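Quick check before the chapter quiz. The format below is the same one you will see on the exam, so make sure you can read both the input and the output lines.
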Amino acid sequence: MAKDLKISYLLDFYGDMLTEKQREVIDAYYNQDLSLAEIAGEWDITRQGVRDAIKRAEQQLAEMEERLGLARRFQEIQGALAAICDCALNIQEYNAQNGQVPEIDENAAVILEKAEEIAGES
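Here is the expected output.
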């Protein structure tokens, strides 16, 4: 069974919506890198039972992302914040090369600070 690392990412967003057993099994498989046989031995279920639990959990995580889009939205916000920071740094650099207007530097610094605050909250 090939591992889709996106599932591990979705588990961070939606893991609490799975049952405890699903969450533990999928965490063991994706995050702890245990094999199906190792998980089956630890939880005293068949290897096929582990595989079925993982497949059901993967499907639920994918459906939650399809409906809610939290992981996609988080990535979009992170990308936008990186672009904002890059632009603010470019403004500061351009300002330094062309007259060094203090208000421009101060505003660019505020933009960077606020973007970093938002990124820290995400």
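If your answer matched, good. The chain has a mean pLDDT of 92.
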